[in-house]
């Protein structure tokens, strides 16, 4: 019998599901059991061509609709997404392995927030009038045209919406390629947009590995590429986009610092560290994986952290009591287990976890290392799994310098009751998305993105509009034209 997660076909182009079985089969594995639940096929060159030409053709009429009309469709899509939240959350859990306890409140819901927010902004995209005596200039905010979205595997619904919603609000069309690891959820986003009244072809989904992404990025018809992925992939995609002078948004990896001063509320700080390391089993780009704890509270912090981490419930992700799921794939699990071994070898002190859980699926116990030093591999490289490194520090000046000593700059957090210090420290940290006495909140109203190797551009908020539109300026002469001859 066909599994309920099996989509009707691999791709969604021009308002309908499309199949081409000549493409390489991509098995969809449920991470909690290792069982294959669906198969999709990578896009063939014919499918890529169909998606791009369809989107290109659909974009012009979409951009000509008023912002109010486009916004109404996006807001309707948000409503449909919320109505279908339960089924979408189950599918998200099959796609990623993340527990239903999370997916019910974090995935289709945040996708719907993006559709609603950018739907609301669509009608407000205006230019300015610049008086020049008799003459004047007016500006128009116009769509870029055909945008490509390429997603990572940790938030397949949210990533499709975080890219699709602002792109469509501005009058662009999009071809979206999900990660081959999680191909299911973006198809539902495309289906919902059609159900909400979006014209066929403005949001299309094609499956495939990096080579399909590469074909999309290098196509001369494409005006913009928005990628969520790792730094190495980001460098390749950015370079390929530069070749065609295309706009880019790069949401890449991180190794973010979370700094806890000794005056912090310990339970809140522990809560922040748990949210910033173990949500989605640590598969979150903005995670605060370098937890710097001021020496005076170190042992108290570690004791409370170990106690609360022990309360994680590993188990069937479809059981709403389960609070901690598996790694997305066997490969990712092995990468993370490799880092854990490195941590042990290089002399970090294991506080809890540290091994594969004794159960089916790709579960790793939530793991905390203490006495981590700046030069250890686990303190330098992005792990993308449930591995928290706790480092000690003495002074503010010292911790800020050490926190910034990384190629990454996605996020940063500080816990302290001293507000002057909190703002000063955040001001000195090299990071794009920061938190004070909290960690990993990502409301659609707030800009999200990194500095340094962690990325270019911002998603969400009014900032995203700037990255999916461009300004045309028009000089209007009211009198005669003077010329030299
Ligand atoms: P990857 O960089 O491996 O892949 C990202 C996407 O790019 C995938 O869809 C991938 O396809 C595609 N891709 C790979 N090579 C190319 C290429 N040459 N041209 C075009 N597309 C290509 O990242 P992961 O999927 O492994 O995701 C994990 C990474 O994503 C982590 O580093 C994490 O930090 C980052 N991330 C960043 C976020 C942010 O907002 N800053 C949020 C979430 C994750 P395929 O994998 O199918 O081959």
Automatic annotation (TrEMBL):
EC number(s) per entry: 1.2.1.8
Entry coiled-coil feature ranges: none
Active site: 251
InterPro entries membership: Ald_DH/histidinol_DH, Ald_DH_C, Ald_DH_CS_CYS, Ald_DH_CS_GLU, Ald_DH_N, Aldehyde_DH_dom, BADH
Membrane-spanning ranges: none
Keywords for this protein: Metal-binding, NAD, Oxidation, Oxidoreductase, Potassium
GO biological process: glycine betaine biosynthetic process from choline
Domain annotation Aldehyde dehydrogenase: ranges: 18-474
Pfam families with a match to the protein in the record: Aldedh
GO molecular function: betaine-aldehyde dehydrogenase (NAD+) activity; metal ion binding
Family: Belongs to the aldehyde dehydrogenase family.
The protein, known as: Betaine-aldehyde dehydrogenase
Organism the protein comes from: Phaeobacter inhibens
Lineage: Bacteria, Pseudomonadati, Pseudomonadota, Alphaproteobacteria, Rhodobacterales
Name of the gene encoding the protein in the UniProt record: betB2_1
């Amino acid at each position: 019998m066909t599994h309920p997660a099996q989509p009707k076909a691999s791709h969604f182009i021009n308002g309908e599901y499309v199949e081409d079985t000549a493409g390489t089969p991509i098995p969809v594995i449920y991470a909690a059991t290792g069982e294959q639940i669906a198969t999709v096929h990578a896009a063939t060159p014919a499918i890529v061509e169909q998606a791009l030409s369809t989107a290109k053709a659909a974009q012009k009429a979409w951009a000509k609709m008023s912002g109010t009309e486009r916004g109404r469709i996006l807001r309707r899509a948000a409503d449909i997404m919320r109505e279908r939240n339960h089924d979408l959350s189950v599918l998200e859990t099959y796609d990623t392995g993340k527990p239903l306890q999370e997916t019910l409140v974090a995935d289709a819901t945040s996708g719907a927030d993006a559709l609603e927010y950018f739907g609301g902004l669509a009608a407000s995209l205006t230019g300015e009038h610049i008086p020049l005596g008799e003459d004047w200039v007016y500006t128009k905010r116009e769509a870029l045209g055909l945008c490509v979205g390429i997603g990572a595997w940790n938030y397949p619904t949210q990533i499709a919406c975080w890219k699709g919603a602002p792109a469509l609000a501005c009058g662009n069309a999009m071809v979206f390629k999900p990660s081959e690891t999680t191909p299911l959820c973006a198809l539902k986003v495309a289906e919902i947009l059609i159900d909400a009244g979006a014209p066929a072809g403005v949001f299309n989904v094609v499956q495939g590995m990096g080579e399909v992404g590469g074909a999309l990025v290098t196509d001369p018809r494409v005006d913009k590429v928005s990628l969520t992925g790792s730094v190495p992939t980001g460098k390749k995609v950015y370079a390929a986009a530069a070749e065609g002078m295309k706009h880019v948004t790069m949401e890449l990896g991180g190794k973010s610092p979370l700094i806890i001063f000794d005056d912090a509320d310990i339970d809140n700080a522990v809560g922040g560290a748990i949210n910033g390391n173990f949500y989605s089993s640590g598969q979150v780009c903005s995670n605060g994986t370098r937890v710097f704890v001021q020496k005076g509270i170190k042992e108290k912090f570690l004791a409370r952290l170990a106690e609360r981490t022990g309360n994680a419930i590993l188990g069937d992700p479809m059981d709403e009591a389960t609070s901690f799921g598996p790694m997305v794939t066997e490969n990712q699990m092995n990468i993370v287990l490799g880092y854990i071994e490195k941590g042990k070898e290089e002399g970090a002190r294991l506080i809890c976890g540290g091994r594969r859980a004794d159960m089916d699926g790709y579960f790793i116990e939530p793991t905390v290392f203490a006495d981590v030093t700046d030069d250890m591999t686990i303190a330098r490289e992005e792990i993308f799994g449930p591995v928290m490194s706790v480092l000690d520090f003495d002074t503010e000046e010292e911790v800020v310098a050490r926190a910034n000593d990384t190629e990454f700059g996605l996020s940063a957090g500080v816990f302290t009751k001293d507000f002057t210090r909190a703002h000063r420290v955040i001001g000195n940290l090299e990071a794009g998305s920061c938190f004070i006495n909290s960690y990993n909140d990502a409301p659609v109203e707030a800009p999200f993105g990194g500095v340094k190797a962690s990325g270019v551009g911002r998603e969400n908020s009014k900032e995203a509009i700037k990255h999916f539109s461009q300004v045309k300026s028009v000089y209007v002469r009211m009198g005669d034209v003077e010329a030299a001859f």
